Amino acid sequence: MSKRDRHGNMRPKEGGKAAPAVPQSRFGPMFSHFRDELDEHHDRRERIIKASRDVTALSKKIIFSCQRVNKLGPLPRRTQEDIDNRMAEIKAHLTSIEPDLASLNRYRYAHSLRCLEELVEALVFAHYLRTQTLLDPDAVEAAVPASIALTEYDYMYGVFDLFGEMMRFATVTAAQTGRLVGGEVVGVGDDGGAAPQDDSSGRRRHILADFHELSVAFELLPEVHDRTFRSKMEAMRTSVRKVEKLGYGIAIRGSERPKGWLPDFKDDHDPGHDE
Known about the structure:
The chain is mainly α. It has helices at 28-67, 77-96, 105-108, 115-131, 137-143, 152-177, 207-219, 227-253. Belongs to the translin family.
């Protein structure tokens, strides 16, 4: 059987003459161009996926640092330094893929760039701990390193995930202090330049009030016919119910709770099982 080289030409037989070159097809250059485009696409996609994984991991580390805080207000110096260092690393990763996300490629590779949801979650969570307010989309866009545009879904889904972090924060601080975080009297010089929001009585809103205010805003959103939206909406409602149950337990039986008590959410009421 005759063999061909990698260019498609017949290899000469041992001791024989070289086989005549196969004529080049007029479609050859076109398919070679397609091959080069596909190779470039796969290389670009791999770079984006790798950077996205690194940014996701760093964003989670920022969230873990914030979860070690036990009160609302200015973040401890070590926590803020850790956040600044992580954000510098995130900037390096995002800057490295800026050319790959130019023009329409930003939307072409949107599913490979899911790290931005995690980054938004980390930014809005740290901002909430400092000020007890929600970071708006423009401020998030300005805080994201590199000139990579955020989509409305990046912001919305990142804020959806904020509910889970707020629920964990409320649960841990309740175990440490015996009450829902917030509600402290705001004294003179207590704001540190970024005081959490207070109500008309001069007391800070407790976290359950923030849950209710933010969840009501999300409930008013027009429904998006997307499985991710429905899943995150249900997760938000579950987080709100858990913090409500936590608050009710503290208000009704708080004095009976031992120090370090953590709530048991195994018996949470599931509205899908009403009889």
